[in-house]
Amino acid sequence: MSDAGAARPAAFLDRDGVLNLDVGFVSRPDQVRWVNGAFDAVRLLNATGYLVLVVTNQAGIARGLYGCGDVERLHAWMNREMARRGARIDDFRYSPYHPDFDDGRYRDRAHWRKPAPGMLLHLAECWPVDLSRSFMVGDRASDMEAAAAAGVRGYPFAGGNLHDRIRDILAGSGPARAI
């Protein structure tokens, strides 16, 4: 899972609303509608030496709409689709916890639910991540709050072409932490 070697910058990406359209409780491949430029964005990050790490709240698990296995199978499928297009997501983390649907099963992952930084920090422990050169892209204020809490720059994505947004971030343009 971990990539040995010198610390590298990471691009932490939210899933729903960044890589794929947020259509509510996505748990199966037939529900995925990729955001424009998603494959090109991940290829660009791969080519520039960034680890690509996806962090996603999955309240549908706590709500009983689908299970952890469904999310893990979906993430494996997403990475196969990326690979077919020459792109790679290095790792995924998801939080099944939601405080309104807490029955105790996922309480140990409460600190992973954004706006908490747990998923980002756990990935930084598992991979050689240089947090000072890393950033997060998300579509919600909770993504920006998680980025700030983890000590990384946060960049909003309000739709459009993800490749263009990532290109602008890498070029040093565009606002950070404004949603």
Largest sheet: 5 strands, parallel
Q: What is the CATH T-level topology?
A: Rossmann fold
Query: What percent strand?
Result: 5-15%
CATH top level label: Alpha Beta
Mean pLDDT: 94
State Rg: 15 Å
Order of strands, main sheet, comes to 3-2-1-4-5
Number of strands: 5
Helix fraction, binned, reads: 25-40%
What class do helices, strands and sheet pairing give? Answer: alpha/beta
- N-end to C-end Cα span: 33 Å
CATH level 4 superfamily? HAD superfamily/HAD-like
In DSSP terms (H or I, runs of 4 or more residues), the helix count works out at: 6
User: Which residue ranges are poorly predicted, with pLDDT under 50 across at least 5 consecutive positions?
Assistant: none
What would your notes on this structure say?
With 179 residues, the protein is an alpha/beta fold. It has a single domain, classed as 3-Layer(aba) Sandwich (Rossmann fold), CATH 3.40.50. Helix content is 33%, strand content 13%. It has 6 helices and 5 strands, in the order βαβααβαβαβα. It has helices at 38-47, 59-62, 68-84, 118-126, 141-150, 162-170; strands at residues 10-13, 51-57, 91-95, 135-138, 153-156. It has a 5-stranded parallel sheet with strand order 3-2-1-4-5. Strand 1, helix 1 (38-47) and strand 2 form a beta-alpha-beta unit. The longest helix has 17 residues, at 68-84. The protein is globular and about 45 Å long.
